[in-house]
Amino acid sequence: MLIKMDIPTYLDCNATTPLEASVLETLLHYLTVDYGNEGSRTHEYGSRAKQAVQKARDQVGAVVGAKRDEVLFTSGATESNNIAILGLAEEGLKKNKKHLITTRIEHKAVLEPFEHLERQGFEVSRIEVSPSGRVDPKEVANALRDDTLLVSIMQANNETGITQPLDEICELLKDHSAYFHTDAAQAYGKELTALKNERIDLISVSAHKIYGPKGIGALIARRRGFRKCPLTALVAGGGQERGIRPGTLPVALIAALGEAARLAEKNAEQRRQRCLQIRKQAIDAFAALQPQFTGEQDFVMPHVLNLAISDIDSEALILSLKDLIAISNGSACTSASYSPSHVLKAMGMTNDQANSCIRISWSHMTSDINWNAITERIRTMD
What we know:
The protein has 382 residues and is α/β, with parallel strands linked by helices. Helices cover 35% and strands 13% of the residues. The protein contains 13 helices and twelve strands. It has helices at 21-32, 44-62, 77-86, 89-95, 108-119, 137-143, 166-172, 251-266, 268-286, 314-321, 342-346, 351-354, 371-379; strands at 9-10, 71-74, 99-103, 123-127, 148-152, 179-183, 202-206, 217-221, 292-293, 304-308, 325-326, 357-361. The strands form three sheets. The protein has a seven-stranded mixed sheet with strand order 2-8-7-6-5-3-4, with helices on both faces. The protein has a three-stranded antiparallel sheet with strand order 9-10-12. Helix 1 (21-32) runs antiparallel to helix 8 (251-266), helix 2 runs parallel beside helix 8 and helix 3 packs parallel to helix 5 (108-119). The protein is globular and about 65 Å long. The relative contact order is 0.17.
């Protein structure tokens, strides 16, 4: 007999999200029924697997208005970022374009590939951000040079939830040859309009941020007219994914990502409204504690709050609330580090200010939250 135990409410959806029921159903179907290899051309199992993969390409591409042949499947946004950034290095060397632009608030999956290219002789301009958490497009324009190969700016920050002015950056890049990449892990399938701008050449996607499984993602590589983005493979062997990301395709994971993308596009407004409802409840509940919200709130996605309570350290706060809610104080990828967030430091915070911030992130699947119990617990902290 299973004993039901009380568990905290999960409020760390920027780290990962729960699976939608139909996504799980799709995943299990292609694990247990149509489990063929997409590359097997001699039997029905292979044919069904190939059909599932092509359907998923259409579903993933539809969210951003991309074509089937512009969708490459990867293990997640980290790999997509690496292919987008490191995969352009050969083109940069060939064309003698060795200047790159990014920001100080990117995920480590973007910052570290840039550091790698810097060690190979490329020059990197890192754009500062204001306390608002936003990049000023004028700073990007000022950094552009004739030899700029790539501009990489995230769609929404994983710690603050603040979206970046992609449309304005696309506009200033319209007459420049530089490739434009965005790490869209946090906002793909949630903020739909910006990613449909065809000036964005490369888009990184992760399934587990949109209620899909871990271990699968995509890199959307748009054509410019009839010309493919000149990416070079980082791994050799097999020829799958047009030779850019070889290896046997994980059909079940891909089909699940496709279903997650389909639902994200179909239910975007419904999900947004539910998240806005939770956000209002959270802000109303925290008001009496006089929190300091991080960054310009007009640009924060509906499902995220990054805040600090005066004189309370984030680690102490998380520990005090751990039986009520599961939250974090930054990126899951750097949670083992006790150093202040590079994102919050880039926004001008001191170490103490950065170490006071917590991130709360929910979803349309989040059940009702007892905000009164949460705020009352905080009041009782020493």
